Amino acid sequence: MLKNKKFYIIIVLLLLCSFSAIKIINKKEIPVLNYHEINNDKHSPLAVTTDEFTAQMKYLKEHNYNSITPDQLLDYMQKGKPLPDNPVLITFDDGYVDNYTNAYPVLKQYGLNATIFLISHYIGWQGYLTWPEINEMQNNNITFEGHTYDHPQLSKVKDDNELKRQLHDSKIDLQNHLSYQVDYLAYPYGDYDQHVISLVKEYGYRAAFTVNLGDDAASDDVYTLNRVPVFQIRKHTFFKFWLNLHFPYLMRAKQLLHRPIF
Ligand SMILES: [Zn+2]
């Protein structure tokens, strides 16, 4: 009798484990790739070589990934709108000029769209995108969103007027040039705290992206969205890109031991 009882307990536990496993596998997780500079010449920790970027975009195309916009991601998360198969959101931070000269031709070649988070005050500076370049890309499947006025560590800014300039005024400036509403923010350095989040909401952003490694699921907090960073040129290999894309949580565990530079 006791033996039978143990047998049933084991069966119930096995069933519970199987259901949990199915639930985890079925939970739709969307990778948000995060690039900065795409450049064969610069040996910046933020750069991925143009050759490697090309190989990664080719991989996405050949494996039937469909690039999506932040609106599609949020419509899925908040309204349950369906996404295409194998969705991926490709993002770039800071608005480097090589996003136009090196990344944009590759994205066009593979029919992929992308989102670039702009530092409003740096537009037109040496090494950064100009408005004519932004406007050309805007007409060819590239979306532009906010990355503050001049890229401070937001949790360290203690003056609310300064936070308003970073989060609100920069948003208005971008909107005036882009002629659409800027709804998304990428936190500089992935840095935020609860006060920053409350202002991000107050100034009308629909969601905000961190550099916390991981994919995004419908149940996640839209003001602390995960991304999959793809940079650190010297350590970067295609295999690492592949691992990050498919197993972000495994890479997150590894990253706890080695804090990234961004
Ligand atoms: Zn940045």
Task: Record the SSE blueprint.
Layout: H1 2-26, E1 32-35, E2 37-38, E3 47-48, H2 50-62, E4 66-67, H3 70-79, E5 87-94, H4 98-109, E6 114-118, H5 131-138, E7 142-146, H6 160-178, E8 184-186, H7 194-202, E9 207-213, E10 225-229, H8 238-246, H9 248-255
Parallel strand pairs: 1-5, 1-10, 2-3, 4-5, 5-6, 6-7, 8-9, 9-10
Helix pairs in contact: 2-4, 8-9
Zinc ion binds next to strand 5.
What about the largest sheet? Answer: 8 strands, parallel
Number of strands: 10
Number of helices: 9
The radius of gyration computed from the alpha-carbon positions, rounded to a whole number of angstroms, is 20 Å
Beta-strand content bin: 15-25%
Approximate shape: globular
Number of domains: 1
* Span between termini: 61 Å
Bound chemical compounds: zinc ion
The CATH superfamily is identified as Glycoside hydrolase/deacetylase
What is the highest CATH level, the class?
Alpha Beta
Give start-end ranges of low-pLDDT stretches.
Answer: 19-26
CATH architecture: Alpha-Beta Barrel
* String of helices and strands: HEEEHEHEHEHEHEHEEHH
Mean pLDDT: 88
Helix/strand/pairing class, anyone?
A: alpha/beta
How helix-rich are the residues, as a percent range? 40-55%
CATH topology term: TIM Barrel
